[in-house]
Structures are given as structure tokens and as C-alpha cells.
Amino acid sequence: xxxxxxxxxxxxxxxxxxxxxxxxxxxxxxxxxxxxxxxxxxxxxxxxxxxxxxxxxxxxxxxxxxxxxxxxxxxxxxxxxxxxxxxxx
Amino acid sequence: xxxxxxxxxxxxxxxxxxxxxxxxxxxxxxxxxxxxxxxxxxxxxxxxxxxxxxxxxxxxxxxxxxxxxxxxxxxxxxxxxxxxxxx
Lengths: 89, 87
What we know:
The structure holds two protein chains of two kinds.
Chain A: E1 2-11, E2 14-15, E3 23-29, E4 41-45, E5 55-59, H1 62-69, E6 79-83
Parallel strand pairs in A: 4-6
Antiparallel strand pairs in A: 1-3, 1-5, 3-4, 5-6
Chain B: E1 2-10, E2 24-30, E3 41-45, E4 54-59, H1 61-65, E5 76-81, E6 84-86
Parallel strand pairs in B: 3-5
Antiparallel strand pairs in B: 1-2, 1-4, 2-3, 4-5
């Protein structure tokens, strides 16, 4: 998993059925100093409480996502699995 | 998953078994501020996207899972038609 900052949300009315009713967020990967590192990407929010400015824990592995969401055919690759309170590094 | 802009279509009559009827589009991957993020790629379309549309995609193994049948040689799929990016 990686640390990311939530930048905002993506809205899409026409989407694959697997994305219906899910919150899709723009996240920016962070380094150990919590500075931006690399390109932003999109992740589904599974904790349902992450908002812009939050530091979050992002899982980027499709099999893990399918286990968590209990659906063996989900075309989802990145999932927000935690909202980070503190990083001591 | 990532954002992209549809640049055009790819016509491909002979293709791998399971991909009959699949629509291929040329896509420029984008960052959240809609700047190019890496090289242009070809993605299979699941949302009837058109040239100029802002879309989001899923890559790797998950791209094939967006299709039916799911065991097909695809590594990028357009899975959403973006209305707005608030970031």
C-alpha cells in the first residue's frame, strides 16, 4: 500500500456497472516527507469518509480489492482502505 | 485507475477470440489537471465513448475483467465517462 493525499472527486454518470454507487477519488502519491511523488491516479473510496486534503492508505492490487469487496470479477485496481491520522517516519 | 482523453478510433477486423465486437479507442492518459501522463495507448471501450471525451480507465488484468468474456488479451479499458473532476 502507499500513502496518498486526496485531491478531489470524479463524477461519472455513464460508467461500467462495477463503478455504480462507488465514490471515485483523485489521489496523489506521497513520499516519506508527505510531499507529492509521481503522478496522480484514481482510487475507489472504501472507507466512505475520505475527503479532499486527507492522507489515505491506498491498496493498488486488484486481487486484494476483489477479496475486500467480495466480488471475483470487479475491474477495480486501486482502493482507499484507510484514513491516516499520523505518520512517524 | 486513471483519466484519459479519447483521441480517435482503431479499426481492427482480425482480432483474438473473445474480442469480437469490442471497440478500440486511442487514448491519451491524463493527470487530474488534464495534462498528458505518459504515452498514448489503445483501450477497449465499455461506455460508448467518443472522440474528445474525458474518460477514466482501468489497466492491467482488471481491464479484461471489465469485459465479457473476461479472459481476453486486453490491458486497458475505458470504464467511465467523466462528467466532472473536482480536484
